[in-house]
Amino acid sequence: MILTVFPRRTFVPIASTLVARVILLILAGLWLAPICLWGQAVQQPESEGGATTVRMLLLTEKAQNLELYYSEKPELEIDSESGGVLPPSGPVLVGARGLSQALPCKGKALYMWLKDSASKDGFRLVSSIQIEASSDEFVVLLVPGAKLLKPYLINASLEHFQGGALLFFNTLDVPIAAQFNEEVTIVQPLDPVIAEAPEYEDKPWFGLRMYEPVSGGGAKVFCSRRRTYQQGVRSYYFIFRNSNNGRIDYRSINEFIGLRGMK
Fold it and tell me: Considering the entire predicted model, what is its pTM?
């Protein structure tokens, strides 16, 4: 089953003296409770016509690239004259270091194919992307499985997903906490979360920390860094478990969107 996930944003503004206590409580198990301290529903903007564009990002531990092909139908078309199979459009390079080129999509689905000499038609279907909302622009996060690429659809036209925004995607089986100065965002497994950078103050950067839960209760930091305010850039944080040492790790990818993303 292909799961389409739209970003859910949950902020917990807290005083600096309570940061550690709140993180410990949430990651110790209270995150399961249906708590909503602040937030509001986000409405999806309607497309003004024309083709929707889709760009893709491959979420893998190692920075690999795939040459994918695409179509708007789940079956390859047959050439009426020769009777042979028409190949899907492409290829398009989809990698882990940056977003792919924009692909046009006029329908409500996009199907991704990989060249496969063992397949009857020379191509193998590896991902089905269902576009269930109206927007001019989408970003698709592709998570490799045993044989398929699981897509997570993000509406790139959302007002709070513009310049300066950060998107977190957690592939662990436990939640993590991301702290921006004095604000905390909880990132559940396999649930993309968009967070806006804190308000600009007197410094050109803000503090970013990420916490993981530890056995027996509590939490520890696995990321602590300063992040520069960049109004023409939005960033993706991919959290995973390092296969070499078993530790929780992350990768950040910047997307330069220029003046159109500035508030």
Answer: 0.78
